Amino acid sequence: MSEEEKFDAIIIGAGPAGAACAYVLAKEGKNVILIERGATAGEKNVTGGRLYTYAMELVEPGLYKQAPMQRKVVREQIMMMSANSAITIDYGNYDFGTEIPQSFNVLRAPFDEWFAAQAEEQGAMLACGILVEDLIERDGKIIGVRAGDDEIYANVVIAADGVNSLIAQKAGLRDDISVHAVAVGAKEIIELPRNVIEDRFNLTGDEGAARMLVGGTDGVLGGGFMYTNSNSISLGVVLSPEDLARQGKKIHDILQDLKMHPAIYSLIKDGTTVEYGAHLVPEIGFSGIPKKLYRDGLVVVGDAAGMCMNTGTILRGIDLAIVSGVAAARAIIANEGASDVGAAYMQQLEQLQLLPTMRLYGKYHELLGNARMISTYPNMANEIMKMMFSVDGTLPKRIDKAMLGIVKKHVTFGQIVADGWKGFKATT
């Protein structure tokens, strides 16, 4: 195409960030092309499992009702695991499922395909099976992209091409991905009858559960998750590749061992694995966001911008990706025909509370990177519970002394103080 035939926006990557941006722009009548290297949108996405509904409401109120959601999450669970036991904290809040449900379990492949199709229905051009290899730059300004022998031009290019963003690197906005800034996730989707899932997770109808797993990773930094879909369970781990390499362990082996833990196996037994995948995810929250998210003619959104967050109780990525896509679209709309929309994009990220939220939880990755959090404390908690519930006919020790003995066995007083201070600093 010639420069005279240029689009208003080229969006690279048809994940949630790219699809949200394309939808909002196309709905406003903008001439948009959404480019995806996979054969279909969602083909290369295996992350996710949960979507917070407020993000979809920003795209268009009520749009979530049409989406291929799985279950609305009303049970928030944290499981602390040791070798052969587990403690599960189960918080049920049924207000989370009324009116506009707070969040849903989702399967990324069908969701992403649906979302990209919705953008297409609004008027965006969806081009799959195309790899964008380079940017076209003139006088310091990004004016288009190259894909093979083709050149495509636009007022603005939006990089939504994932955690290892080639486009952001080509634009000089970020370096090659560093091992400490990402985690590697592996996930299985395990099919089970609907009624079996509801019985095992104490659910009714379309209710769902989200369970964070602490421990069960063979001492490797990271954690696990379980999400209840309509007719399947999403089970996975998200681990430090640096720690995996240091300990000489494989993520696949850890996931398979996790499946055989008694507390997990009882929830997935007789199920059939129908999907397996692995993926890199941004790991260090606000610290992982590049110093600059734009230049003249280009903005970076979603995972490409490091917009992912782990607070220890919830994992957030899909909603942040969608919000960033909406922010980029609004900035482009407000600056009709302009290529330099970066400042407006940053203002939208502030107004939509994305950056303030990430700042608020900006130090949590330091707390969660403490090896004692994923091994020592779960083991200690399980041993305390074992002591409290064991009956063997012998005279028990004083409860306070027995509990203190267990604590001293696992950690020193100095370690407790240090970890408590680190936790306090991470939350203030």
UniProtKB/TrEMBL annotation:
GO MF entries: FAD binding; monooxygenase activity
Membrane-spanning intervals of the chain: none
Domain FAD-binding, first and last residues per copy: 7-174
Keywords: FAD, Flavoprotein, Monooxygenase, Oxidoreductase
Leader sequence segment: none
Domain FixC-like C-terminal: 367-426
Keyword Nucleotide-binding part of the UniProt annotation: no
Record's keyword annotation contains Zinc-finger: no
InterPro entries in the record: FAD-bd (IPR002938), FAD/NAD-bd_sf (IPR036188), FixC-like (IPR039651), FixC-like_C (IPR059103)
Cofactor: FAD
Family: Belongs to the ETF-QO/FixC family.
Name used for this protein in its record: Monooxygenase FAD-binding protein
Biological source species: Pelosinus fermentans JBW45
